[in-house]
Amino acid sequence: MTRVADQYVAAAPMSDPVSVPSITAQAGVEDQASSLRRLMDRSGPPMPRSDRPVIGPRHRTPLVAIASGKGGVGKSTLAVNLAVGVSRTRPMVLVDADLGTANADVLCGLAPTRRLDTELFRPGGPDLSALRIGTPWGFDLVPGTAGVAHAAQPDQRLRDGFIRALRTFGSPGEAVLVDLGAGIGAAVIETMASSDLGIVVTTPEPSALADAYALIKCVTRERGDARPIRMGLIVNMVDSRASGRAAHDRIDRVCRRFLGGSMPLLGLIRRDRRIAESVRTRRPLLAGRPHGPAARDLRRCAEFVAAITPRRGGGGYGSHGGRGNRGGYRP
What we know:
This protein is an alpha/beta fold. The chain has one domain (2-10, 24-308): 3-Layer(aba) Sandwich (Rossmann fold), CATH 3.40.50. The protein is 37% helix and 14% strand. The chain has 11 helices and 8 strands. Strands 3-4-2-5-1-6-7-8 form an 8-stranded mixed β-sheet, sandwiched between helices. Strand 3 and strand 4 form a beta hairpin. The model is unreliable at 13-27, 40-55 and 313-327 (pLDDT under 50).
């Protein structure tokens, strides 16, 4: 069945009719967020769980984890811009948790003197506060690890220590956004499964969609307690809103068919040359007062993520809705 699902998500024709979330076009961000929270409150069919318990709910600040099934989908650029956008409504800290090729500091135009690898191996777990630095863009950053081979594949003890550190990191009222590496490595899966909100980033390309579904499936199976694992999808680099909605529909149908739960849409980001320019200049696109389709999409996506992120950890919005329940962002 697993192989069938993977082939289904990659091969479904993009010309299929698209069923969009049942939210009126005039609905505001808060109305859409309320609809998504109601969707996540509904109990769906039981999902598989791993034998190893996931570290329990957070208590201090909400943890938002962002990951992708494959590289090259614009995840880190999206994470940095989400941090910029969300920081305009609440305090925000971005943790670059790519343990091999971290680059959020590069995208922010920074040159940190210490990175995550200097704390990752500390007995008792890393002190993330010791690595926290300010950025010119309104949020703080914990720089990730780059070019340290033995940090790229942490063992179970290091992974558990890192997740415990994330659970106690931040100040009351803040939100913590964790930019994870690409793929389905253990560190990615376990951190996503322990988060208050998991964001999966993909593009409309068939291989990216297949890998995004693989990530969703692995996070679902990693759950080890009754706490709902909240996830949503952002489709990046879309040529049109219609193609982005079609990509989301393909993922959502496979999740409902094979995992028993819906995958809400959190946003669509259109292709825009200004994104490549912002990467070259090391200045996030949402810095200042940007124009263009991608800036508008990123701004709206950041507003939506801020609206659905609980004010405190362990928000407990519930599991994904049962078959046939749809909800989320309406581009």
